[in-house]
Amino acid sequence: MRGAMAAAAVGDDVYGEDPTVNRLEAMTAELLGKEAAVLVSSGTMGNLVSVLSHCGRGDEMIVGDQAHIFLSEQGGAAALGGVHPRSVPTAPDGTLDLATVEESIRADDEHYPRTRLLTLENTHNGSGGRSLSVAYMDAASALAHRHDLKLHVDGARLWNAAVALNVAPARLLQEVDSASLCLSKGLGAPVGSVIVGDPEFIRRARRMRKILGGGMRQAGIIAAAGIVAITEMIERLADDHANAHTLAQGISQLDGISIDPAVVETDIVIFELRRDDLTPAQLSAGLKELGVLLNPIDSTHLRAVTNLHVTAADIERVIDAFARVLGSRGDSDSDGVRV
Asked: According to CATH, what is the number of the domain 2-232?
């Protein structure tokens, strides 16, 4: 990947003259069954650009109350675009109840904002990397389009969903209007996301990217890493999923850890710490001393994420480190791993 970055042919992407960026965009659009694509710097920018390209000031989007867009992107759509978020409950599997979504669509009344957009997240980060099925994606798309809404998918880890469900990534997006997909995270690129959609949407997205400061010059050095990511890194995500499941099984047997390994579908392991004598922050600190880096996500839960740098042997060392901190197993050495 670094070799590809060093050797990349480059140009000015703002003028559409970077051949490596153009190639990445064309390849990603084809892979995902869409007509056009645009490279952006991050998943947060990808989601924000997409929302602002679908909605005007005063418009409303329907979003899950545990969605990354709603919780972890500084309310950018409202702060920068004047787009009103209407949240609905997120089910444990990451889905939104479609009857509730339909009830949340505003009537055409001057007292209300106009509902323009439905957003989904696949896989769903806050639900532990759960995958939204093809049938669910199709049903959500049909609902949105029946009410003249657009459907945007935060697909930061859509690649993981495709591998877990054993379907082509394009099939998960077949009926949706836009999606933002990360090249980093499981695919291993250092930076970058790609937005896909139809040509008119992508034209608007390029304008929004520019006003947000996302216009890039010789961005081929980034795009080259992205090309390696989408051509060489997708199928190997199954290894991350297997390692995550092994981790979940291992720690589920330790004193004070609550997790059902059966719900670990992809690369995210979210678990609850039930110990009166140990907080998540203390567990995190203890693991750090043994070379394992993971963070609390609230006062009772922590999250671990597997990736291409974490091997099956690393997982065994991580489980041992947990046991040592929790006092459930004897001492052993650890070389250090980030999950």
From this structure: 3.40.640.10
